[in-house]
Design goal:
It is built from three helices and five strands. By secondary structure, it is α+β, with helices and mostly antiparallel strands.
């Protein structure tokens, strides 16, 4: 699959994560940094599209729609396309807690 097939014209795959990080900055002491995630691509066949990101340390996923709302994978959905395997988190803090991020104090800066 080519990158163009993943990326509709005019759409940034990092936009949802950047929006989520900006909104949640004060809620979780700024621990969610977009640079700490890998873009894993869009969830297949989901409308509206959901982009998947994996944290580089915890290896846990955060799934975000274009507006930056977090969704959790719940399974389900069927071959006819009914239902969705993703459900929206009740709020951003629940999604952040799911990531099991290290506290900012446990991540010392590399200042050689």
């Amino acid at each position: 699959m080519s990158l163009e097939a993943w990326q509709p014209a005019g759409r940034s795959e990092w936009g949802p994560l950047e929006r989520f990080a900006a909104v949640t900055w004060r809620l979780h002491e700024g621990a969610l940094r977009p640079g700490d995630f890998m873009y894993m691509g869009p969830a297949d066949g989901i409308e509206p599209p959901i982009d998947r990101y994996k944290h580089i340390r915890t290896r846990r996923y955060i799934n975000l729609d274009a507006a930056g709302h977090a969704h959790r994978y719940v399974g389900g959905g069927d071959s006819s396309g009914e239902g969705s395997p993703y459900a929206r988190w009740c709020g951003p803090l629940a999604a952040i807690e799911h990531l099991e991020l290290p506290s900012p104090s446990s991540c010392p800066l590399n200042v050689d």
